[in-house]
């Protein structure tokens, strides 16, 4: 349960809010590289942290992300002409380069120098791991480029998708660190989805519905350990990583790829659910890529605007017969939309003062506390929040079977660090 004041603090990320300012300390995913596929291709509208922006790729291949609206009289530059190293407003021809600088003002006297004085707000936009990342904070505090493992392995080893989610980012992110729902909501898919099936760990997941949670602080966020019974008195541990503000890595299964999410606020009532799948030591197979593109695993089938095909307007294609037969637990198909449908059903911003939390919610409780502490330290003393440091980003999830007397944080210490070229700890 959370007081209204704290709920507001954690769910509001506009430019003038405390968390909005802290969220702007991080590089965040803004677009898939495929959305700007060629030089001088059409510009793309981007809304992030409640700011309306326009992204484009110029004639020389440079990326720009700037205020969506022309400084002259507020036209959306989505209508602009992307030509000769700049985006030109179609109303009176003002032209901007990738830094937002106005470089041409053709409706002004020929020798006017006024264009030099006009600059739109702009942010860096940089490609890494098939994702275009942006940093929206003060330029003098810009950290080095992010080094999350999914974005730094060779291109053939990683795949990322995104989908529009119609609720506040925090309730989506909380689903990513809530390991307990997997045994219920996703139970129909664990043994059948091509990106999950066949792992020994699946049986422990399905066989023990009452995991014991042990949550331990990490430098950048939390290790969320969920313990289930395995054979001979041993424990099957699934250790999820949460790195501030919203990076989550799901523990792996067998030899499958490792997956996880980034949850990025669009505004306070919508977010992007970014979903990645990568393998630290091998390329993804054609069969895996085909499944990911088809919306299997944690990915979803989406339309050209990245809105899921199953969405709230069509009741997520609810299949009551499949629900009754136990084919799916909730009647919704696929991990992604099973999660999204329920998280959206909470309303755009859930009122956390009305919750009834239990022991399996300890990861969620500690994540909120850690965020609130970080916002306070950042706001009052300018303390750089956890997760900005590259070291905090070079981490992994793990799935391991351990004897009952071994604490997971010691026994799996090394498995929780991303060592390039080393296979993940997985059962
Ligand atoms: S509104 Fe853009 S040039 Fe006039
Ligand atoms: Fe889920």
Set out the fold topology:
Layout: H1 4-11, H2 18-23, E1 27-32, E2 44-48, E3 51-57, E4 63-67, E5 81-82, E6 87-88, E7 95-96, E8 102-104, E9 122-123, E10 125-128, E11 131-135, H3 149-152, E12 158-165, H4 169-176, H5 182-185, H6 187-190, H7 200-207, E13 212-217, E14 221-229, E15 235-243, E16 247-249, E17 258-267, E18 270-278, H8 286-293, H9 320-325, H10 335-345, H11 362-381, H12 390-393, E19 398-402, H13 408-411
Antiparallel strand pairs: 1-11, 2-3, 3-4, 4-9, 5-6, 6-7, 7-8, 10-11, 12-18, 13-14, 14-15, 15-16, 15-19, 16-17, 17-18
Residues 175, 181, 186, 335, 339 line the site of fe (ii) ion (FE2).
Describe the structure.
The chain is an alpha+beta fold. 22% of the residues lie in helices and 24% in strands. It is built from 13 helices and 19 strands. The strands form 4 sheets. Strands 12, 13, 14, 15, 16, 17, 18 and 19 form an 8-stranded antiparallel beta sheet that branches. It has a 4-stranded antiparallel beta sheet with strand order 2-3-4-9, with no helix packed on it. It is globular, with a radius of gyration of 22 Å. The model has no long low-confidence stretch (mean pLDDT 96). The protein binds FE2/S2 (inorganic) cluster and fe (ii) ion. FE2/S2 (inorganic) cluster binds at residues 70, 72-73, 75, 89, 91-94.
The averaged pLDDT comes out at: 96
Give every kind of bound small molecule, once each: FE2/S2 (inorganic) cluster, fe (ii) ion
Tell me about the largest β-sheet. 8 strands, antiparallel
Task: Note the total helix count.
Answer: 13
Structural class: alpha+beta
Q: What is the rounded distance between the termini?
A: 34 Å
**Number of β-strand runs:** 19
**Per DSSP, what share of the residues sits in E-state strands of 2 or more residues?**
15-25%
Name the poorly predicted regions: none
Query: In terms of quaternary structure, what is this?
Result: single chain
Overall body shape: globular
